[in-house]
Write a structure and sequence with these properties.
The chain folds into 3 domains: 143 residues, no CATH class; 401 residues, Pectate Lyase C-like, CATH 2.160.20.20; 290 residues, Lipocalin (Beta Barrel). 5% of the residues lie in helices and 61% in strands. The radius of gyration is 48 Å and the shape is elongated. It is mostly beta strands and 879 residues long. The longest helix has 20 residues. It is built from 4 helices and 67 strands.
Length: 879
């Protein structure tokens, strides 16, 4: 209620000013409410006035009530569904309190803020629409709090300002600054703290600016035509603003500017889109003398750069990228323009560069980069200048795929670095579990270490065309000293292998060559085996296709103690064991299902169904007798006559299944290769037989067969990838024999049977390309084969129900018209099975009265450097 004294004064003045009111513009009504305990309610229809409320009074604006502005001094203001429109705005001072829910506030004044909360006051606004043609809100002074929720705010200049220990709380607020003059923000903090959640802050210039104070931004969207978020502390560091942004998006020509400040991003995105007027237009984040943390899948995106680092006055930047991404669509991910910085990438952080440069370091810059549990694709490039420092530490789980250009001190520990171009560093250290991969094999790269190299159990993986001395290869060039121990692996890129002289240089050392480089795994090209040698003349390390001298490896060996110089023998090329395994596979496949008449019958005439099991062991030498090849095979063959006669003539079908394994061992190196074969066969056979008189064991037979054989093969070299390939062939044979008795008795007879077999094997193309590029071909595999021999057998028979037994011995001469051998990259391997071999066999067969029969035998083959022992067991049934 209005005080009585004021009403009297107004009535006395009415007549005095009536005339002037008729001719002058009508001023706004003004109301004053003061005194503890005094309250007044502005109801609908009450004149719209500017109110002054002070000294503990309370102004209440009822739903539909309106004012032209309210100035609250040590008093209270409440309102619901208010309408406030005028030039005076709303101000709370000196520990005042206010709460307005619903309605609208329109401020058309000029000058300062539309709504101000200062000197320990608090104001709560909820569900309003607020428009200001000047500044919007200002919260300043210790204890001053402005809380705005569920509200839409539009202002011509700064929408929210916080300073001098004031507090701003925004929840679900849509705030926009529309100034066309620039230099204005949706939120400008020069002190205090602000808590923003679920809100959108946008401006035609900058979204949010902090000169001092603390900002907490959560689940919000900040947009600025120039800079979305600017943290600009004083160069002295006295005012160092801090912002914690979570689950939010910042978008501007520059996403964020962080100068002498601290910014942490959690699950948030910062975008620098370009199109503004700020320095660094198109940068995601610019950092100067500040601390920046990106965690929990945060993203920083820019066009010309994802992140730009600089420092002044000897300051330093500290950047943590944890499980987050920094990307640029055109330029580098991180661009350091000067000063000092410590950058850490961890837990799957990513750097995505539009120009392929993950980190670029300019002159007068010093960057310490630490990477762990993270894969980075892109180059690390330092300027060619003595004022540039690029230190790189790749820790546990780090993987860098790119070049390091002008690196300073590079250290790897349980990490991997794959070069994509030539690289150069000052110092390099490889710790345990570290790997340097010189490339993917498409190009050859050189890594230059201008200073010293230290190995602590790491590994260098080179690509090389393994051939002669001048073969292309990756290289490590050390300008200083080498020390420690390093493992070396070599990947052959299509090299055919060749004898070497000095060798293929992998590592050059200009200083003291005190480091040891040990070949791990095997280096193979074509049929050649390579080893790593240290050249005494220049301290470099070379690959040679010869065996190292044991005394070079261990001078303390007894045989190395002879003081008398001995002639240096001509180096012998070291050949790999895999060719022996390839040849053993072919040999096993070629003979696995080669069956003749007695292989199916074993002397038992008229058996119409049969099964046979074979097992054999063989061995031969190869490759200048450097290889010792041993193998074994097993095969099961089953057949049955489709039709036949009583004298043993007929036509039948047969199938087979078998497998073989072999081991080819180098006598020089101890390396080995294992061969495996799994095969199947299907075929037909036919026999015509005429008995000599009434004796079923004597007479002439003519036998023929045709088979299709198919094999799956493997060659597994020690420390090499398993090679798999298929092979197929047609096999046919014709055999003739004649048995005649040389002795007859009442219960036994002795027969002599000359035999001759001629056959042909036609193999499909046998070619395979190994994973290292070596082309393997089997040559001269197809061709005729023959066997000539004699079989002597004795038959005991008593007639009736007694079984008939037929022991036998046989000797044959075997010859192959083909001469199968292996080529490795067009170079013939000295590993051949002899064309002519002798075969000796013995065994016995039994025929039972019920129609069943069984046989068993042993066979020995021998030729030049070749031997085979085998055993056979068979069953047959006659009906």
């Amino acid at each position: 209620m209005r005080p009585l004294s004021q009403c009297i004064q107004r009535c006395a003045l009415c007549s005095a000013i009536a005339l002037s009111l008729a001719t002058l513009p009508m001023p706004a009504h003004a109301g004053t409410l003061t005194g503890p305990g005094n309250t007044f309610t502005v109801t609908p229809g009450y004149p719209t006035e500017v109110w002054d409320v002070s000294d503990g009074a309370e102004l209440i604006i009822a739903p539909g009530g309106s004012t032209s502005g309210v100035q609250v001094d040590n008093a209270r203001l409440t309102g619901t569904d208010v309408v406030m429109s005028g030039v005076s705005g709303l101000r709370l001072a000196n520990n005042s309190t206010g709460a307005i829910t619903g309605g609208q506030i329109i401020d058309a004044g000029i000058g300062s803020d539309a709504i101000t909360v200062d000197s320990g006051s608090s104001l709560s606004l909820d569900d309003l629409s607020i428009t200001s043609t000047r500044h919007g809100f200002n919260a300043t002074g210790t204890g001053s709090t402005l809380s705005v929720s569920n509200t839409v705010v539009t202002s011509a200049n700064d929408t929210f300002r916080v300073g001098d220990n004031g507090t701003l709380v925004l929840d679900n607020v849509q705030a926009a600054t529309t100034s066309t003059f620039g230099g204005h923000y949706a939120l400008w903090m020069i002190g205090g703290n602000a808590q923003v959640s679920g809100s959108t802050l946008s401006s035609t210039f900058g979204g949010v600016r902090l000169s001092a104070g603390t900002l907490t931004l959560d689940d919000s969207d900040v947009r600025g035509d120039d800079t979305a978020l600017a943290l600009a502390g004083s160069p002295s560091g006295i005012d160092r603003p801090t912002a914690a942004v979570s689950n939010s998006t910042l978008t501007g020509a520059v996403g964020a500017l962080v100068a002498t400040s601290s910014l942490s991003l959690t699950g948030s995105t910062v975008r620098g889109t370009g199109g503004g007027t700020t320095t660094g237009d198109g940068t995601g984040v610019r950092v100067t003398n500040s601390t920046l943390q990106l965690t929990q899948d945060s993203r920083v995106e820019g066009t010309i750069a994802g992140m730009v680092l600089s420092s002044i006055g000897g300051g330093n930047n500290t950047v943590l990228i944890d499980a987050s991404v920094v990307s640029a669509s055109v330029g580098p991910s991180v661009n350091m323009l000067g000063g000092n910085a410590d950058v850490t990438l961890t837990n799957g952080a990513q750097l995505v560069a539009g120009n392929g440069v993950a980190i670029q370091v300019a002159e007068t810059s010093s960057l310490n980069l630490t990477i762990s549990d993270t894969s980075i694709t892109g180059d690390l490039v330092g300027a060619t200048s003595a004022t540039t420092t690029l230190n790189v530490t790749l820790g546990s789980g780090a993987w860098l795929q790119g070049a390091i250009i002008n690196g300073t001190d590079v250290q790897l520990d349980a990490a991997q670095w794959q070069l994509t171009a030539d690289s150069n560093v000052q110092q390099l250290e490889l710790g345990s579990g570290a790997r340097v991969l010189f490339g993917d094999g498409n190009d050859f790269h050189t890594l230059q270490v201008a200073g010293n190299y230290t190995g602590n159990g790491g590994t260098l993986l080179f690509n090389a065309v393994l051939a002669g001395d001048d073969a292309p290869t990756d290289r490590l060039v050390i300008g200083g000293d080498s020390s420690g121990q390093t493992n070396v692996q070599v990947n052959n890129i299509g090299g055919p292998g060749a004898p070497t002289n000095r060798g293929i240089q992998l590592i050059a050392v200009a200083g003291a060559s005190n480091g040891s480089f040990d070949l791990v795994g095997r280096a193979v090209g074509g049929q050649y085996e390579y080893f790593l040698f240290k050249e005494a003349a220049d301290g470099g390390w070379y690959l040679r296709s010869e065996l190292p001298d044991p005394c070079d490896i261990d001078p303390s060996l007894p045989e190395c103690q002879n003081p008398e110089p001995e002639p240096v023998p001509e180096p012998v090329p070291v050949l790999r064991p895999e060719p022996g395994a390839y040849l053993a596979n072919h040999q096993a496949a070629d003979g696995m299902f080669r069956l003749g008449y007695h292989h199916r019958q074993a002397g038992q005439n008229s058996g119409r169904a049969w099964a046979r099991v074979d097992g054999s062991r063989s061995g031969f030498g190869a490759n200048l007798q450097q290889l010792n090849v041993h193998g074994s095979s097993q095969a099961l063959s089953v057949g049955a006559q489709v039709f036949g006669s009583e004298n043993g003539s007929g036509v039948g079908v047969m199938v087979g299944s078998g497998n073989a394994s072999s081991t080819s061992t180098s006598e020089l190196t101890g390396y080995y290769a294992r061969g495996k074969v799994k095969g199947n066969a299907v075929g037909v056979y036919g026999t015509w037989r005429t008995a000599a008189g009434a004796d079923p064991y004597a007479g002439l037979y003519v036998d023929g067969s045709v088979q299709r054989v198919m094999f799956r093969n493997e060659v597994e070299g020690a420390a090499l990838a398993t090679e798999r390939y298929d092979s197929r062939a047609w096999q046919s044979a014709v055999e003739v024999g004649y048995a005649f008795a040389i002795s007859r008795g009442p219960n036994s007879s002795v027969f002599v049977e000359p035999q001759l077999q001629v056959g042909y094997s036609r193999w499909d193309s046998l070619q395979h390309t190994e994973r290292n590029g070596t082309v393997v071909r089997a040559e001269d595999a197809s061709g005729a084969f023959g066997r000539a021999g004699v079989r002597i057998s004795g038959v005991t028979r008593w007639g009736g129900s007694a079984a008939e037994v037929q022991p036998y011995v046989a000797a044959s001469w075997l010859r192959n018209a083909s001469n199968p051998y292996v080529r490795m990259d067009d170079e013939a391997v000295d590993a051949r099975i002899p064309r002519q071999r002798g075969e000796f066999s013995a065994g016995a067969s039994v025929r039972f009265p019920g129609g069943f029969g069984a046989w068993a035998g042993l066979t020995l083959q021998r030729g030049s450097g070749y031997h085979q022992r085998s055993a056979q067991l068979g069953l047959s049934y006659r009906w």
